[in-house]
Amino acid sequence: MDCELCAGAGGDVLWQDGFCRVVRVADAAGEAFPGFCRVVWHRHVAEMSSLATGDARHIMDVVLATERAVRRIVRPDKINLASLGNLVPHLHWHVIPRWKGDSHFPAPIWAAAQRTGIARPMPANANLLDVLKAELSTLNEMP
Q: Which sequence spans correspond to the domains of the chain?
């Protein structure tokens, strides 16, 4: 099987447990949208409905904790949550901070950019890695 999320982390690992991991997206989209994270299920499944009920709750708890951490740290106007998997059919959730007037607003980040050079008052991505790790460390206390 050729699955990039089975073969690699999918970004800079911020937190993980035996079921899933939270990664900071480390590509052009991650640079354009500081704080952009993915929550990736370790085992290769394509759909949420393939998970047992407890596992589905677990990944959603992690998605929500990640959203809360990103909101506290980068203070976006909005968070987009997406689980598409069209190109990579491996269960993962995108946690995407958005700002009014960001490069793609109001379109999805996968659409064509509508503007460039948007400045935002927030920590640089280099600092986000450590800050998000600290914020997400509370997930280790989850049942």
A: 4-141
> pLDDT tens for residues 27-46?
777 777 888 999 999 999 99
> Whose structure tokens read 């280790």?
140
CATH architecture of 4-141: 2-Layer Sandwich (3.30)
Residue 83 burial by Cβ neighbours in a 10 Å radius (0-12, 13-18, 19+): middle
pTM surpassing 0.85? Answer: yes
pLDDT tens for 63-97 read 999 998 898 888 899 999 999 877 888 999 999 99
CA gap 94, 92 in Å, rounded: 7
